[in-house]
Structures are given as structure tokens and as C-alpha cells.
Design brief:
The protein is an alpha+beta fold and 69 residues long. The chain has one helix at residues 19-33; strands at 6-15, 37-50, 53-66. It has a 3-stranded antiparallel sheet, with helices on one face. The longest helix is centred in the middle third of the chain and has 15 residues, at 19-33. It starts with 5 loop residues before the first strand and ends with a strand.
């Protein structure tokens, strides 16, 4: 493994269908504005319930990306 320095930012992804979809959407959106994304960590998973059913999912992620030389 090479020696790198990373910056970490925290974001929240949401989805109507699943927590996995919320993660994928969050990573895809972060990739539009951050370069060199290398890893993520799921910090928290939440959801919203309406009429006894899951209405949507929220997933908080820490995203690690390499700092450029």
C-alpha cells in the first residue's frame, strides 16, 4: 500500500427503496465534486416511517479521499 494522506467528509444519502441504494446515490453524488474517493464507512442508518411502513432510508457516510500532491 502506498503512503497517502486522506481528507474525510461526512455526507447523508437518502432513498425510497433501500439503505444500499442510499449509499450508492451518496457515493455517486460525492464523486461529481470530489476527486480520488478511495473508501467509505457507514456511520449511521436511519429511516422514516409513515402509516406503519418505511417511507425512506437515510444513511450517514464518512467518505475518504486522497489529498492531491
Amino acid at each position: 500500500m502506498s503512503e497517502n494522506v486522506y481528507r474525510v467528509t461526512e455526507i447523508v444519502g437518502t432513498s425510497l427503496s433501500s439503505s444500499d441504494d442510499a449509499i450508492k446515490k451518496a457515493i455517486a453524488r460525492a464523486n461529481q465534486s470530489l476527486r480520488h474517493i478511495d473508501w467509505f464507512e457507514v456511520v449511521d442508518t436511519r429511516g422514516h416511517v409513515e402509516n406503519g411502513e418505511i417511507a425512506h432510508f437515510q444513511v450517514t457516510l464518512k467518505i475518504g479521499f486522497k489529498i492531491e500532491e
